[in-house]
Amino acid sequence: MAIQFLELYSWIRRRKIFATLLVVVTLGIGIVIGTVISGRAMATHDQGANGASLLAIPDPVTLSNGFATISKKLGPAVVNISTTQIIEKPKGSKKPHGSGDPSFQDFFDRFFDTPDTGQDAEKSLGSGVIVNKNGFILTNDHVIDQATKIQVAIDGDPNHYNARVVGIDKDTDIAVIKIDASHDLPVAKLGNSDGVQVGDWVLAFGSPFGLNSTVTAGIISAKDRSMNGDRQFQRFIQTDAAINPGNSGGPLVNMAGEVIGINTAIYTGGRGFEGVGFAMPSNAVIGVYNQLITNGKVTRGSIGITFQEERSNNPVLLKELGAPYGIVVEAVEPNSPSDKAGLQPGDVITEINGQPIHTGADLVNPIAQTAIGQSVQIRFVHALQAKNVTLTVADRSKIFPQTAQTEEDQPGEEQTPGELGLHVEELTPDLAHRVGVGKLTGVIVSEVEPASFAEDIGFARGFVIIEINHTPINSLADYRREMAKLKPGQDVLFKVAPPRASNDRVLTVFLAGVVPAAQ
Q1: Is the domain of 80 the same as that of 201?
Q2: Choice among 124, 248, 312, 338 that is catalytic
Q3: Which of 125, 139, 166, 204 could be a cystine partner for 176, CB 3.0 to 4.6 Å?
Q4: pTM of this structure
Q5: Known catalytic residue: 173?
Q6: pLDDT-wise least confident of 130-134, 227-231, 496-500
Q7: Domain match, 334 and 447 both
């Protein structure tokens, strides 16, 4: 038994020694391999030019993605708006010739007996934000003001949509336009602008200088900011998020991804960004939008007074008039609710519906939002005595008709509109020779209306129309017959020959587009 135990002990000891040797050998091999690899890696780093170590691409690091998340979510609802305005050219200017050869300009003026006055198209860019899946878009009035044509481009969508104006409100510089698409559109969510605080992060979306889908970041710099004392309904959110020309009409967005303002203006010594931008608060925008889509216009209440808030902030003035605070009445409109109640210039309005008045907005907003015919309670100081009066709110546009928004008819000369903006004449052999199109037959374009479909697809004066939708055009009758076949929404292809200085080579150009609906 003792012998067996000694043999077992000897066997276990030999196994321990073998295991230990195995571990030592393994570690040794690992050290050798590591040294070789390290040496090779060092050799690799030493292979850079002039002994410099090569740079390696590090693993990606996830930074704060709050801005990126908001941009991806809201970006598709922000649109680019391009407008065309027809303007009368001054006497002595040349008729526009589009993309045609300017060397033919005088010839066309003489041949077609066109005057040296006419119309031209002025184009501008802005932004907007879709707030309804059916295509209702918020923007600025000054973006679409007097526009003959409004086109909307959505990022990632190859289509350009023609928009119509639903309504405008010049008092807030807000407009609503609508496009028709064959599918539901991405929509931005509007937030409550009363919840924003100075110092909050915000993002500004838009197309500054025509650069689509641009996003800039900043903070709320101030609230309830007025840029023009005469504009009672323009109280802005101020931001240092970069806003530049072309941003107008785009949204200002909080960190919840909600639109809390419509970018409207910048304060700058030049044309560019200087850290001071202004957006109309969303709460004001929502009220305007709801009235425009319901009634096509905005109706506001008034009690018939005017004032200057800057002068009302003078503590000496208020003290002399016997009021601790308030708005000083500077004028009272005849036969207005205030006139009938006995208010006079120099009175100080201190409360409305029991709420103290410290700013012009404190006075204007409750009255403007009160339904016409409803009453408000006014407390004011007259001749150092406090008085209370109940006033019936009236329609502001009737009290101040000189500032009401009116649409004036401006009839001009009667003109025969061209088909899709084209005016054509029969192409005679002599005229074909003069414009360098050889023996081609067809009709020649005598005029292209500004901002028309024809101008959009590239027509210019002097172009000879050879085919329409693959059908040869040999005469004016052929042209009229083929044009009469075209329907809104149909594809149309024109084969044309531009005018050239010689008959050596006739250039063939194809112009195509979708026939627009009648405006």
Answers
A1: yes
A2: 248
A3: 166
A4: 0.69
A5: yes
A6: 227-231
A7: no
